[in-house]
């Protein structure tokens, strides 16, 4: 990604990474801001501008370092080196009001963030797993900052703990020859190619994602697969059957043996609808009154009967065609 402009906190330029980014993107306007949390001229933009705003980069210093307990694949969700994303998946849970989460924000104080992580890992009485990719896509971010390479190599020196992150991107080549020390768990998120093309704008094709997962497995990383989020477009039975078939065909035998699987059904919201209807007027409508029910204020999820059908189809396919890879959870 080469941005159209960079908004930055001036203090960020006193960090090594801030200086590197300034050098890298010196061909575009750099606009100073008081806080990466509140950029008045972007905050006022209409929803129609949502896609365009993704062409900006925001550079600042992360000040909130609070870990959130998590009981799925990790012990903690860790706010890390970026937030937001320059891709545009229509359901992305990073989407929020006031456009604050539309663009990619990069935080330059990575030494401080990794330092806390390593200290927490070292002080625990068991191996903790830290989810570092819940606020953005770190494989995508790595193409701009090199932060993932830096993180994996440095965390390999830790005597305890694991890092994990999911991705929808295939740019894993810089990660393959790293000395990762077995301390990083790579999880690839997949969907049928038709869902990727119609819903996950700007992300990597399915075929490439499967190849990337195979390569990471060959490079000795622990690997996982996320079927997420399951999006029930009209012909979902056909699409998800094809997805399992393609996985069965293209995942390497080694990856199939090593994989764990997570399945997450899509949730959607009033805010998503409002933004998507204006920003992507020709895109598929993900809200369906007949398929969905309200869950919490302004949130929608699939009705339980429909969800159960989806789960049954996926569980049967995985059991029959993927050698029964363990399914860690379905939500
Ligand atoms: Fe959100 Fe991930 Fe899609 Fe980026 S790739 S828009 S972080 S779901």
From TrEMBL:
Gene3D superfamilies linked: 3.40.50.12110, 3.80.30.30
Entry keyword set: Lyase
Pfam hit, one: SPL
Entry keyword Lyase: yes
GO MF entries: lyase activity
Superkingdom in the source lineage: Bacteria
InterPro entries membership: SPL
Name the record gives this protein: Spore photoproduct lyase
Organism: Caproiciproducens faecalis
């Amino acid at each position: 990604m080469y941005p159209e402009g960079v908004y930055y906190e001036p203090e960020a330029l006193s960090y090594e990474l801030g200086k590197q980014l300034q050098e890298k993107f010196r061909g575009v306007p750099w606009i100073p801001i008081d806080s990466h949390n509140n950029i008045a001229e972007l905050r006022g933009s209409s929803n129609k501008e949502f896609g365009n705003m993704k062409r900006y980069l925001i550079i600042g210093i992360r000040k909130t370092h609070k870990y959130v307990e998590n009981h799925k694949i990790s012990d903690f969700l860790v706010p890390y080196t970026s937030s937001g994303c320059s891709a545009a998946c229509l359901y992305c849970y990073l989407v929020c009001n006031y456009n604050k989460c539309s663009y990619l924000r990069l935080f330059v104080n990575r030494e401080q963030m990794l330092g806390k992580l390593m200290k927490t890992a070292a002080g625990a009485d068991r191996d903790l797993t830290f989810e570092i990719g819940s606020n953005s896509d770190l494989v995508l971010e790595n193409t701009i900052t090199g932060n993932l390479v830096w993180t994996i190599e440095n965390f390999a020196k830790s005597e305890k703990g694991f890092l994990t992150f999911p991705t929808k991107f295939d740019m894993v080549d810089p990660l393959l020859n790293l000395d990762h020390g077995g301390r990083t768990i790579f999880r690839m998120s997949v969907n049928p190619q038709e869902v990727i093309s119609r819903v996950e704008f700007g992300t990597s094709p399915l075929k490439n994602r499967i190849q990337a997962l195979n390569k990471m497995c060959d490079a000795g990383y622990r690997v996982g697969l996320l079927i997420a989020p399951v999006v029930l477009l009209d012909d979902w039975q056909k699409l998800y059957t094809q997805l399992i078939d393609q996985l069965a065909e293209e995942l390497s035998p080694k990856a199939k043996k090593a994989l764990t699987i997570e399945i997450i059904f899509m949730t959607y919201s009033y805010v998503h609808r409002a933004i998507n209807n204006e920003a992507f007027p020709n895109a598929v409508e993900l809200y369906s009154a007949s398929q969905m029910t309200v869950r919490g204020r302004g949130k929608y999820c699939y009705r339980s009967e429909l969800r159960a059908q989806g789960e049954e189809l996926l569980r049967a396919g995985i059991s029959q065609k993927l050698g029964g890879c363990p399914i860690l959870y379905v939500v």
